[in-house]
Amino acid sequence: MSMFPMIYSDWWANLAVDVGVILLAVTLDWLLPEPPARVHPVVWMGRMINGLERIAPQSPTMALVFGAGVVAFIVAIWGALAWLAMVGLTELGTVAYLLGGAVLLRTSFTVQGLIMAGAATQQALETEGLERAQHSLRSLVSRDRAALSAPLVAASAIESVAENTTDSYVAPWLAFAMLGVPFAVAYRAINTLDSMWGKRGRYEHLGKCAARLDDLVNLVPARLSAGLMLLSGALLGLPARQGWRIMTRDQRTTESPNAGWTMSAMAGLLGRRLEKPDHYDLGAEFARPGSEDIGHGNRVARGTALLGVVVALGVLTLRHWIAA
After folding, report:
1. pLDDT attached to residue 226
2. Ranges of the chain with pLDDT below 70
3. Cβ distance 186 to 82 under 8 Å?
4. How far apart, in whole angstroms, are the C-alpha atoms of residue 120 and residue 20?
5. pTM here?
6. Are 297 and 118 spatial neighbours (Cβ–Cβ below 8 Å)?
7. CA distance 97 to 72
């Protein structure tokens, strides 16, 4: 059943409203910039996580326990807040539910932000020089950028866009299609925890639960995103069979059980070597990428987004039909 009361007695009418929510949310992402930081739920999630980090214990065992508790708390509180918001919007009527739901769902994903970040790096490489291009990567990767050559800057941008097709939009849309806006917001809370704590070093124990949970919830979306990416590439005239071959061969070479699927699929589609020195080397037989390949990758990512919306609408239809 739905996580919030039905608006109408007819399942198809409720489906139409939820279809409106996701389509309006995607339109808002296309037309408008990110909401201001002071009202953005993801920013507030980050502030809560930072605040809790200050009181985290230093003992590895206690840090592990504390980290697990924080994950449960953050995911539960944000999922519950989104659920309460949707219940309140339902009581206000269809228009409020449609508009409010779209705005809230919009905060759980971004297509334009990801594509624009990749495009900014491409432009910097082509017109502003290597140092500026390295700086532009700050919104895409957390790795050390100072020593990256131009091909490695291009590879980093392409890799990040490819990897983030999963958690930037395909996974949140799938979460919404399955269980509504609250589940999409809860997913974003998990992903935010992983992005902040799911690292080795100082977060080895504190972030272990966040990292493992993020791996778990992305198992299906990552593989779905890779499949949609191959289809997107085929529709754009790129070699999908080559993409499939590189994906099935190289996807296990990344540390993450999920990231390798989309990154290696992109490497095969573009026929470009995507590497992170001392970590992975995808499509090693290909030439290293240039700035123009970032644009080609962005087009594949846009196509993946379009197909992702279609899949989400199909899952949404199935959910409403089963719940009827």
Report:
1. 98
2. 1-9
3. yes
4. 31
5. 0.94
6. yes
7. 27
How wide is the angle at C-alpha 45 spanned by C-alphas 115 and 221, nearest 5°? Answer: 50
Asked if 21 and 201 touch (Cβ cutoff 8 Å), the reply is: no
CA distance 174 to 236: 24
Q: Which helix (H) or strand (E) holds 51?
A: helix 41-53
- pLDDT value of position 6: 52
Alpha-carbon separation of residue 80 from 3, 31, 181, 309 (angstroms):
10, 29, 11, 25
Q: What is the pLDDT of residues 142-197, one digit of tens each?
A: 777 778 999 999 999 999 999 999 999 999 999 999 999 999 999 999 999 999 99
How many whole angstroms separate alpha carbon 199 and alpha carbon 208? 8
pLDDT for the residue 278? 84
- Note the pLDDT of residue 9: 55
Q: Are 283 and 264 in contact (CB under 8 A)?
A: yes
**Contact partners, residue 164, CB within 8 Å, separation at least 6:** 114, 140
Question: Which one, of 191, 213, 210, lies nearest residue 200 by Cα?
Answer: 210
pLDDT of residue 59: 94
Residue environment code for 23-49, b if the CB has 16+ CB neighbours within 10 A, otherwise e: ebbbebbeeeeeeeeeeebbbebbebb
